[in-house]
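Um, can you check?
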Amino acid sequence: MREPDGTVRPAYAALADLLENVSIESLVTKQQAADELFRRLGITFAVYTEGGSTERLIPFDLIPRILDRSEWDLVERGCLQRVKALNVFLHDIYHDQEILKAGLIPPELVLLNPAYRPEMHGVDLPKDVYAHIAGIDLIRTGERDFFVLEDNVRTPSGVSYLLENREIMMRLFPDAFDGQSISPVGNYPERLLENLRAVAPSGSDDPEVVLLTPGRFNSAYFEHVFLAEQMGIELVEGGDLFVRDGDVWMRTTEGPVKVDVIYRRVDDEFMDPLAFQPDSMLAVPGLLSAIRSGRVALANALGTGVADDKAMYTYVPRMIEFYLGEHAILNNVQTFMLRDPRQRQHVLNNLENLVVKEVQGSGGYGMLIGPASTAEEREAYKARVLQNPSNYIAQPTLSLSTAPTLCNGQIVPRHVDLRPFVLSGKETSVIPGGLTRVALREGSLVVNSSQGGGTKDTWVLER
């Protein structure tokens, strides 16, 4: 909100004036009303523990995070460039593998990757799109530049919170919008549906789109229900679909309905018991065959997980140069690959200063945050790393930028990141703003909701 010298940044000027004239008591009352609305709407997520899962309310902070137009233009261009390169990369590794032949990426990182699906080799997808929905996690350090922390192109979540945050802000804090020209986000469901319909198999004049969910015990089930309702499409589980004569059909009370596009929120290995995990209760037998023959489109495509592997992340700038002939607009964070003996030794000698992550990890689980760890925790983690070094990467502990946040009746700085959502299909576009996640605990750098983080409304000023 403020420059290093204490002056308010122009993007926050109107909000700063408003906060000067609003009592803390009033803000706390609005915050409590927002929490009650979230509770009534059922905006929750599941936290998985050894004893099962627990439903929790998504913590929401009333004070928005604001980006001016020049900041957003940089983010938008960088995210578009990155997702375009990732889609070309995915098409390439399942076809001619030119980037592997050029020696720019070690072949074993792709071909032996657990997320690589050889069943998709040679399969042509509509418009060559693999990642129809992508979430690019960005951070900012003490400077003004944004850095990419990771790419999410399997089944990225969080957009429902982005939409509900804006809705609740407009309902409870309308004064904050006075005199502001803020880019709208409410048309996301329409844009998503338009992009999904654009990749339907040829010959579908009025494509039938469904959203496939693992069911109500999934951590993002609220989002599945929300998006299906907003798009006006059916929410289905594996048992609601079947394959007959090469096509995918949906069971309805009026008889079978042919399905053209499946927006899936189910992981690859559970999608088809005939091809992957045979005991999956979430799956549609024969689905892979329908995908390979072009009778149904799947968003995101099978095998996209190779592109959001945390080890593959380090090679995205090379992908951008190789496929697009451009330099990366958004830089990566410095990353050490523990599969490399020299880099591994450096990391193990400096664990107290680094963040170490599993390459297939998500949700903030399985991490070691060096500065916040004990000597015993570092020794235990070191033993895990040495059992399978290729499963880990490490990054410096970064001083994430902060945003004003209402905590315990005070406005205080808390660390934030940003997840813009990129849609591909009819065209590639970025929803203005994205999801700001905030580490609500003082000093914490972990913004994941599963680890005590919350969310904010994100404003992009149009002028």
